[in-house]
Amino acid sequence: xxxxxxxxxIMTVGVLALQGDFAAHSVRLAELGAEVVxxxxxxxxxxxxxxxLPGGESTTNxxxxxxxxxxxxxxxxxxxxxxxxxxxGAILLAREVTNPSQPSMAAIDMRIERNAYGRQIDSSIRxxxxxxxxxxxxxxxxxxxxxxxxxxxxxxxxxxxxLLRDKDDPILVEQGRHLAAxxxxxxxxxxxxxxxxxxxxxxx
Length: 204
Ligand code: GLN
Known about the structure:
The protein is α/β, with parallel strands linked by helices. It has a single domain, classed as Rossmann fold. Helix content is 26%, strand content 31%. The chain is built from six helices and twelve strands. A seven-stranded mixed sheet has the order 2-1-3-4-12-11-10. A three-stranded mixed sheet has the order 5-6-9. Strand 11 and strand 12 form a beta hairpin. Residues 55-58, 87-88, 91, 114-115, 148-149 line the site of glutamine.
C-alpha cells in the first residue's frame, strides 16, 4: 500500500478533450499536482484513474464520443472510476435529459433540463453558500459559480447528495464515486471542486 501522505501520490486524471472548455480543467488539475491526460481516444481511458467531462455542447460531444468509440467505453469506466461532469458533462452523466431528450450515461440518478435558465439570463456569475457537507470536505466560505447556458437539475433520487445549491436548485451533486456540477468551477480561482474530485479519485 502507498504511504498515507497524499502529496507523495501522484494521480493521473483524464480530461475529455473532444470539444468545449477542457483546457481550463487541465490547468487546474495540474496546479493541484495531478498528471493530466487529455483523452481523445478510447484506449487512453486505461491510463487514467478519474475523468472530467467538461462543459461545451453535449449534443456535439455525443456525436464525437460515438465516432471515437468512447461512448460505449465510458459506461464501463463509470462503473469503476470517478467522473466529474461539469455543465454539458453533467448532462452526459444524468439518468434523464430533457429540453430535448437525448442519450445519457445514467451514472447519476437525476433529471436535468438543458439550457434551463432561458435566453436572457443564459450566462451569469453567482455567489453561493456551500451546504455544510461541501464545506466540511473542502473549506468554508462562499463559492463563485459561473453559469454558461447552463442546465438545471430538476430532480434527484434518494441516493444522490446535494453539495451545493443556488436558491433551491441543486448545482453540485454526488452519487457514489461521481460528481456533477452545472457551473464552471474551472473558470474561477476557487480550487475546491477539483480538490474534492481529486480526493474521490484518491480514495476510489
Ligand atoms: N447548453 C449546453 C448543452 O446543453 C451546455 C453549456 C455548457 O456546457 N456550458 O449541452
